[in-house]
Amino acid sequence: MKRIRTLGVTVLLTLVIVSCGGGGGGDGVVLPPPPPLAIDQNNAMPVAAAVLDAMAIVMDLGSGSVVPPVPLAAAAEDASASTPTLTGIIRDQAERFTLLQEPPAMVQIAAVVIPPTPYDCVTGTFTISGEIADETGTLLTPGDTISITFFNCDQGDGLVLNGKLALVVVTGVDTDFTPPYDFTFDTTLTNFSVTELASGESFTANGDLTLREAVTADGLFTETEASGNKLTAAVDGETETLKDYWIRGTLSAAANAYTAESSGLSDCCATLESTALGGSVDFENIEIFMGVGDNYPYAGDLFITGATVLVGSGNTSVELVAMMDELCVNLLVDEDGDGVVDAGITTTWESLPTGIPDACVIQP
């Protein structure tokens, strides 16, 4: 599916850039949130691209199974292609859970406490600790806890991992993830960084993410939800923060079809704070994005609101409406918040990150 990776406008290429010296904390600097952004026809396209990018990155970081089908910035695709997912990391360590849990066969226990257990990488190390109720280590059940801390861990795949991933199981799954399953993990990421050796690209995740993934018995339908209170990123000195976010996607392999949607976790809308954009915006899907295969959506409506610029008026906004030809998208911009469209921009999905409208002929 198409995905946006907007290196040009530096939107959430994934989470806080830091040095890769180990699993320690950051510098403790807390920056004030940027003010609401006044949306107009000049910044409407980058704003839309930033929100779509945030949706895609969060889903990609969570499980990678269902990623919102939004425009692809080819220059960034290679940089993000090797990004490990939370589900992938847990799957990679599943065999070790079994090895760590070896009580005598006749002994029944309520839980096995895993003390901090170090492992060598090709270079560097990582440590697993936690508490798992299933004494065989083959099943994750509600209340289980797992903590993995990486210290300059190069596992031979071209990536170096640092930082900490802490996980609490809300609804369980067997550790080989055999369909059907429906699991939910509450995850906290603390300076969880990944550096690609070939390019030097690096990111670090900080914040919370609740990941749910459900797969049918035939493995043909996948539903993924990613939500949280706050997830922060900084790339090349720019800071991006998602707050109160809920993002859901589905993928039907049988129908070769997908959906994607977003909203707030506890309120109407999610919030994206971006120093790259120069402010914050709220967003939610009025209509779910729907599409087929690797094509862009043929339906869906994303509403993004910014600052109030006129006393007594509403918020400035841009409404992103997918077109049925799967190539074009229509942006409806309200620059003064009076509820009347001041500018309409019809352009291609690919052009959104550039901020420059591309000629788009609506197909019948």
General description of the model:
- There is one protein chain.
- The chain is mainly β and 364 residues long.
- 12% of the residues lie in helices and 44% in strands.
- The protein has 3 helices and 17 strands.
- The chain has helices at 44-62, 74-81, 86-100, and strands at 112-120, 123-132, 139-140, 145-154, 159-171, 173-174, 181-196, 202-215, 221-235, 238-252, 257-264, 270-274, 279-292, 299-305, 317-322, 328-334, 343-348.
- The strands form 2 sheets. It has a 15-stranded antiparallel β-sheet that branches. The chain has a two-stranded antiparallel ribbon with strand order 3-6.
- A hairpin with a 2-residue loop joins strand 1 and strand 2.
- The longest helix is centred in the first third of the chain and has 19 residues, at 44-62.
- It is globular, with a radius of gyration of 21 Å.
- The two termini are 24 Å apart.
The end-to-end span amounts to 24 Å
Main sheet? 15 strands, antiparallel
Number of strands: 17
Helical/strand content category? mainly beta
- The count of helical stretches stands at 3
Overall 3D form: globular
Overall pLDDT? 79
Q: Uncertain runs with pLDDT below 50, 5 residues or more?
A: 1-27, 68-82, 103-110
SSE pattern, N- to C-terminal: HHHEEEEEEEEEEEEEEEEE
